[in-house]
Write a structure and sequence with these properties.
TIM Barrel; 753 residues; Chitobiase, domain 2; binds 4-O-methyl-beta-D-glucopyranuronic acid; 40% helix; six-stranded mixed beta sheet; alpha/beta
């Protein structure tokens, strides 16, 4: 038993001692003191035995996966100390300085020895550029393979002298290499025969913050925006630097600071001065800053009468604005634009195309090396075309018309970050244009920040989907990393789940989604399970059984949330506006394609959206053989069944042989049960991981369990009105009534747009 007296314990002791005063009890002081003495001893014992200390002490999650806990195993410690204890980092740029500091901090913690020494004395050498080239020659290492931002981490021998070298062509590469080496140590991997060569397959690896200037985070569930705009530029939180460190540790090299529903004020000098400070803080970590811009900025803050992209005055306004930014931020990354989408202004307002809008900005940025990330998330009722088809219809005719420094940023699915979607048909359909992937890391449609959902398997599923654009093997991963169509630039964006919560993401497990995003942006061929295991071992436990148990839970958690909310290809049936909880009955929003009923189409004759040639023919946007396969329910993967087909309630579901209605009910009940099983498995981990982390996830699982039952009852009862079929015998009638569930309202649900 550990005796720790924390703030809360001390406060309670003082309170107990002062009780007579507070209670004004008239008892004899002599007895009172005796009683109090026993009470205090009793309280201290109880608090140390678990309950109180579990609540108030422990790992609060701030350190993320960079905990650098001390290595206990003596063999390992000995070998790490020998090989890493004395190191030398060449160069004195800010980035090399950061690399040096990271080693100092990490090794000091992990092996309790950390000395920066002369190159001759050192057993670990870290170098970039010219220094690295020389070392590479000395140790016969092919440094070319590290490419621009990559690294080589290798054990080398020369004249019977064994060293570890971290070599890179750039400073950023060397820093990434240092983080990689430290990861190996955190994972307790042996270092002998170490030979890692790694270079990013994607050039722009960026987080998108949907953060407003008043610190509200659209679809954010982890507190406020970490950017304290009001206190910038003077007040610089340590958190800014820790944010950059965490990103660099997984290879993220860009951040879009503000919401795509952009406030034009971000481009005023008042804010640019603040942006500059963040850019300066992030630069040593290899991170470039980008901004979301409002297309009508020339009118809103520039006093122009138009924002028409072919107007010379408008063009000049953007050129001047860009020059003003680069004067202060020489490595500024560029702009992200949401245009003519959900009420945002865009070139369409002036009768111009997305390409004309994007190219105007691209021309202003090109002389400085900046890029435009132009979003393809566009849809509008007036177009008279089914929502899932609109982005493709609007963008494919523009292929080949974008300037070189424009990337079109496409959400993973054709609709909108649903728990599961087939990949967007745009991937593969615009060979002349670099397409960026946009994943959502924040869990707008997946249970906010109280659900245990690891998104790795979902990202992997999308990235490994075959588009067949150039025959078999034309995966989405190969489209976006530029390999398939040979593009110079490539990108992946992740809508951030970060906020001011002490643990950054509101839920410890959700840190893994930030982590896996970075890993997959570096290498879209990464395996979700391997990444999960790495993350668990650095964040929660390095013990074999705990690692296996948690990794397993993570790997099944995405399928679980799909079963809980939208099994068999259902989609967009969440509560209106905030998207919290079930809302399959939502049918009265301003636009058809905001309503749940538009998407599930439940009726007496069946359920699901007919997107085959007999229906809206969305399947035509995919390459063969997908367009044929997905036009037929028999050859459509069950996970997409109701996405592409409207099927009768007695349609036989192949994998189970159950009628569709029974299968649907089965999935909803099964989903809720899986959450309970997950909660039970988590309970088994008590004592194996940090008590605070344990307890926080446990509490969130309580919420998740409650909400899974809510989803089950709401969807089963709602759809039953149409199927008019009984709930299969194995299950039971939900205890809530549909009327009661429909009446629930959450006007203050977090993260609203
Ligand atoms: O999913 C929707 C969200 C909006 C978001 C939009 C988008 C930033 O509900 O909050 O706006 O997507 O991606 O632009």
């Amino acid at each position: 038993m550990r005796l720790t007296l924390g703030f809360h314990e001390i406060r309670l002791v003082i309170l107990l001692l002062r009780m007579p005063y507070f209670c004004r009890i008239n008892i004899r002081v002599k007895y009172f003191k005796d009683v109090m003495k026993y009470l205090i001893v009793f309280f201290l014992l109880v608090s140390q035995c678990g309950f109180a200390s579990n609540l108030f002490h422990g790992e609060d999650g701030y350190r993320l996966w960079l905990k650098y806990d001390a290595i206990q195993q003596s063999e390992l410690l000995k070998s790490y100390t020998e090989l890493l204890g004395n190191y030398h980092v060449y160069g004195d740029s800010d980035t090399m300085q950061v690399a040096r500091e990271e080693l100092q901090f990490a090794l000091g913690n992990m092996i309790n020895r950390s000395r920066h020494v002369g190159a001759d004395e050192a057993t670990l050498l870290v170098a970039s550029g010219e220094n690295a080239t020389q070392l590479a020659e000395r140790y016969s290492v092919n440094i070319g393979r590290a490419e621009g931002e990559g690294y080589i981490v290798k054990q080398v021998t020369n004249n019977n002298e064994t060293k570890i070298v971290v070599l890179a062509n750039t400073d950023a590469g060397a820093l990434y290499g240092v983080f990689r080496l430290l990861k190996e140590v955190q994972l307790h991997k042996p270092l002998h025969a170490l030979n890692i060569i790694s270079a990013p397959k994607i050039s722009l690896r960026v987080l998108n913050h949907w953060d407003d200037l008043d610190r509200h985070v659209e679809r954010g569930y982890a507190g406020q925006s970490i950017w304290d705009w009001h206190k910038l530029p003077e007040y610089r939180y340590q958190r800014y630097v820790d944010y950059a460190r965490a990103n660099a540790s997984v290879g993220i090299n860009g951040t879009v600071l503000n919401n795509v529903n952009a406030d034009p004020l971000i481009l005023t000098p008042h804010y640019l001065e603040k942006v500059k400070v963040l850019a300066d803080l992030f630069r040593p970590y290899g991170i470039r800053v980008y901004l979301s811009v409002k297309f009508s900025s020339p009118q809103l803050i520039g006093n122009l009468s138009t924002s028409d992209p072919i107007d010379p005055e408008v063009q000049q306004w953007w050129k001047d604005k860009v020059a003003e930014i680069y004067a202060d931020i020489p490595d500024f990354g560029g702009f992200l634009v949401k245009a003519n989408s959900e009420g945002q202004p865009g070139p369409g307002d002036f009768g111009r195309t997305h390409a004309q809008g994007a190219n105007m900005l691209a021309k202003a940025l090109a002389p400085f090396g900046g890029n435009v990330m132009w979003r393809a998330f566009v849809y509008a009722n007036e177009k008279g075309e089914e929502r899932s088809k609109q982005a493709y219809s609007e963008f494919t005719p523009l292929d080949g018309k974008f300037d070189e420094n424009v990337l079109v940023q496409v959400k993973n699915g054709p609709i909108d970050f649903q728990p599961r979607e087939p990949f967007s048909p745009l991937f593969g359909a615009m060979p002349e244009t670099p397409l960026m992937m946009e994943f959502q890391i924040t869990m707008e449609y997946l249970g906010f920040s109280t659900h245990f959902v690891y998104l790795g398997p979902m990202y992997e599923e999308v990235l490994q989907s075959d588009t067949y654009a150039k025959g078999e093997g034309s995966t989405v991963a190969k489209v976006i990393d530029g390999e398939l169509f040979d593009h110079r630039i490539s990108g992946m964006a992740g809508v951030s789940n970060i906020g001011t919560d002490r643990n950054w993401t509101g839920h410890i497990i959700l840190q893994s989604n930030w982590y896996v995003f970075g890993r997959m942006a570096w290498d879209p061929e990464s395996k979700a399970s391997e990444v999960a295991e790495d993350w668990v071992r650095m964040t929660l436990s390095n013990e074999k059984s705990a690692v296996a148990a948690i990794t397993n839970m993570m790997m099944t958690s995405h399928q679980t949330v799909v079963d809980v909310m939208t099994p068999l290809g259902l989609h967009h049936i969440m509560g209106a506006g905030h998207h919290y909880g079930p809302g399959p009955w939502v049918d009265s929003l301003g636009r058809d394609d905001w309503n749940s009923t538009y998407y599930h189409r439940a009726a007496k004759d069946g359920i699901g959206f007919d997107r085959t040639p007999e229906g809206v023919n969305a399947t035509e946007q995919y390459f063969s053989p997908l367009k044929e396969l997905w036009s037929n329910p028999q050859s459509t993967p069950e996970k997409y069944l109701l996405w592409f087909h409207h099927l009768p309630w007695d349609f036989e579901v192949e994998s189970s042989g159950r009628p569709l209605w029974d299968e649907l009910v089965y999935r909803y009940f099964q989903g809720a049960e899986q959450v309970s099983e997950m909660a039970a498995k988590w309970d088994d981990l008590e004592g194996q991981i940090d008590p605070l982390q344990f307890r926080q996830v446990q509490m969130a699982l309580d919420i998740q369990e409650k909400e899974a039952i809510w989803w089950r009852d709401a969807c089963v009862l709602y759809f039953q009105q149409f199927s008019e079929r009984p709930i299969p015998a194995k299950w039971f009638t939900p205890k809530h009534s549909l009327a009661e569930l429909k009446a629930r309202s959450f006007p203050h649900a977090p993260g609203q747009g």
